[in-house]
Design goal:
Alpha-Beta Plaits, nine-stranded antiparallel beta sheet, 234 residues, alpha+beta, 2 domains
Length: 234
Amino acid sequence: MQVTEQRNFVKYTFLKVDPAWRRRSAEERGADKREFIAACREFGGDHYLRAYSLVGTRGDCDLMVRAIARTLEPIHELHVLLNQSGLMRFAEVAHSYLAMTKESAYSDEPDKPLEPRPGADSKYFIVYPMWKRRDWYRLPAEERMRVMREHIEVARRFPGIETNTAYSFGLDDQEFVVAFDADDPAEFLDLVQELRATESSTYTESETPIFTCISVSLERALDALDGERVGAPA
């Protein structure tokens, strides 16, 4: 079947920095950060890239890079360049998720953009991989639509939360990567708690790990790694 809609690849890369990196000199750490920034800016000139800090919200990762492109090649090249930076000699990829945008079969908003709108980011970005139970896919399409209507109606009671669902079938281990823009974590907590009582939740196989990310500039996300600002070369 030919795909006619425009889709985008979405890559979520979560990094954990070795504490040994913070024992390097300030000059060395500054140079490492600048190399990392240069790689991101080269990609970001033609594609969407955002960085998020997880310092204080997760113990297994410190930084997340979200990269979006029409094809896989730019995402591949981005990570080739990142791996050449000094910072990546002291970091490991703690979690990695690849997905693709597409129109939802359950949405009544077919014109909703399939890519993020620059400047529309909220204070927090919450993301997790998701799997549905196999018996969900054996339900008739009409039954799945009925179940999802309740899910959608609950979500609409929380207008401060914007959902961004991407699909990973055959591209990565998970089936979906579900992400939410939120300014109030309490509102998101209440949304998830209410969704637990819906029928659609009974068909969820797994939706962990969950990452609560703080939306910041790339420079601020890197500064949070050691508490020092990225400066110009000495």
